[in-house]
Amino acid sequence: MATPPTVLFVAPFGLRQKGTVRARTLPLARELARRGHSVTVLIPPWDSPQDAGHRWDDQGVHVVHVPLAGGPPLVLARLLQEIGRSRPDIVHVVKPRAYAGLVQWWLWQRRGAAHLRLLLDVDDWEQAWAPINGYPWPLARFLAWQEEWGIRHAHGITAASRWLVERISQVAPHLPVCYLPNGVDPPEESTEPVAAGRDVLFFTRFVEVEPAWLAQFWQALRPQAPDTQLLVAGQAVNPAVARRFRERLPLPHDEQEGIQWLGYVDPSTLDRLYRRAGCAIFPAMETPLHQAKCSVRLATTLLQGIPVVASAVGEQAAYGAEGAAWLLPADATPAQFAAAVAQVLQTPERGRILAQRARERLLTRYAWAHLGRRLEEFYGTIQG
Fold this sequence. Notes:
- One of its GO terms (molecular function) is glycosyltransferase activity.
- Keywords: Transferase.
- By secondary structure, the protein is of the alpha/beta class.
- Helices cover about 45% and strands about 15% of the residues.
- α1 packs across α15, α3 packs across α5 and α13 packs across α14.
- The chain is globular and about 65 Å long.
């Protein structure tokens, strides 16, 4: 039996603030380790400097944080030194940007080792974030170049959404691409759906809809569910985006009663928040930003047994298919969204059916064990 290839993931950032490495890269790495691979996740922790220089084992995965002393050139050099020492068969770059993108560029220029295969993982369309985050033009242009160069210069690509698969086929039509959405871990056997409250939960980065949409939704829902509160949870990548959203919410002060702005929710308190909810909403505009992403938050909310009303945009339509969520067209009005939410709140049996279908679909189609096997098969194709 052939020895499984040694795999090294190169992350663009750390585990604490942003979600990709924690919620996507590590679960895939763990599944590969369970299947006999030697797996390392290499991290430049510029956004979590408290981890710099630390190494640990995570369910069989070697997690390595390089030191940050000396600035970007030395950090990049340390990343490359770690790769040289590890001598992996596969280097899987996570996002074609920042340090990870620079590592990809360097390795591609020096791809003399016949055994090394360089792959890229994309879970977002990074260019869509430039205007939202207010990047200056030179930085936005560099990141756009880095993204498209990265897509063209790899032996294969894993993509978290079907939109990204199609976009990659346009940029690099002859490149092997593996559709690899975000997955879920099976809950404990004793875990039951937790939805028991009357509130409506809205996880947001303040870019899914315009402030006017949320105001109209709330105005339409209040008469139909007068004892319901709207729980707005999450933080923007750029804090100014969240501040502008709240300032532009076209509601008088008395109509904002019942809206709770929770900000960032610590993972340790999520269970308590879920228990307040009778329904969660995932509205989204039909733009590349939302078509490209694959929402881990939507998957985990469905798995927790929270009935979901969502726009059928991008991967939300895939997660919510077959009755796993109440899907509405991308152009559904705020009033139509409110009517659907009110029906879920008023008919608990409908909510239980949604929750059961969601759990069955997720554990069948999106278990990390299944996705890890798909990734392993893709590696075999690339090596072959």
